[in-house]
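Re-run requested by the PI after the first attempt was lost when the workstation crashed. Everything re-entered from the original request form. Ligand of interest: magnesium ion.
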Amino acid sequence: MIASLDTTPSDDLGVPAAQRRSAELERQIRERPGRFRALTGDRPTGRLHLGHYFGTLHNRVRLQNLGVDMMVLVADYQVLTDRDVADRLAERVEDLVLDYLAIGIDPRRATIFTHSAIPALNQLLLPFLSLVSVAELSRNPTVKDEITHSRQSAVSGLMFTYPVHQAADILFCKAGLVPVGQDQLPHLEVARTVARRFNKRYGAASEPVFPEPEALLSAAPLLLGTDGAKMSKSRGNAITLAATADETARLIRGAKTDAERHITYDPADRPEVSSLVLLAALCLGRDPHEVAEEIGGRGAAVLKSVVTDAVNGYFAPIRARRAELTRDRTHIRRVLRDGNERAAAVADATLGEVRAAMNGVYY
Ligand code: ATP
Ligand code: MG
């Protein structure tokens, strides 16, 4: 189990424990995939990148294909957590859906939807806010990090309450699995706390209203960007899924490495080099230690050319499919309309249950 928010969060955000738990969950999913519902999402703040792909997107497609019920949220209201205005929102939402479809999310099996179209989901935020303290919100390490990188001079209430909104995203559909990158572990801990406290305060012990959702980490829970910090849409250090082969080559050529010539896979002591090695290994379906050993004393330039070829080879079919899908924008809008309808029905049912549990149905 991940450490609870009630304890002081450790520096590693509970990553090793979450990784062990993910391995156990994978075993249970393989046994009975139909028992699980998963939710994840992305803010429409720019195009999806390789960090998203290997951190969470690949897992979503894999889970969907195994038979897990997959909910994919375009978190449009959360764009405003760290900026005043949601720029080019419609275009960015479409871009996100294009990325989803290109990587293999299948709208006949998965539900793709947007926050702003699901009123009942957002209404859950109010009772949920009453279940967490201001002190708990202020010590959330992901919120602290996002505040550091925020484009705003003052921290808005939306930024501060963002993890509770995310709890509503996960709990409205009673998702038990959340395939995310490691930066999301503290947020997930808030969702677990909200579920637990709601059940304790309002539920019958025999029949909890909400399951406690669990993170499902991938083999690359924190891919680094070209500057050596977490690859991130908003930080100008990302290689997008939709990038051309030439752009990819240029970005990887400029990626930060270190002064040691001999290439090794050592994430703790050589994070930048190791993240590049891991990226090549994931694209090639190989072990990162082996990839590093093969490059050995040939240095960073060879490493970068291996990574570039691996990325361009792996993403060529995805990029081609994306270009093909771009031609039919009406299809994208239809996917969202259908997904929104399905998600709204789920949210209405959960809000009904929540109000009944809170004795809030009186007319
Ligand atoms: P922004 O900079 O706008 O916050 P982001 O790149 O951090 O964008 P999000 O939309 O916040 O992307 O995150 C979407 C999902 O992708 C989350 O599950 C997050 O954990 C995962 N993710 C994002 N960046 C990485 C990364 N570098 N490595 C692994 N997973 C990642
Ligand atoms: Mg982010």
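Saved to the shared folder this time. The CA atoms of residues 165 and 342 lie 20 Å apart.
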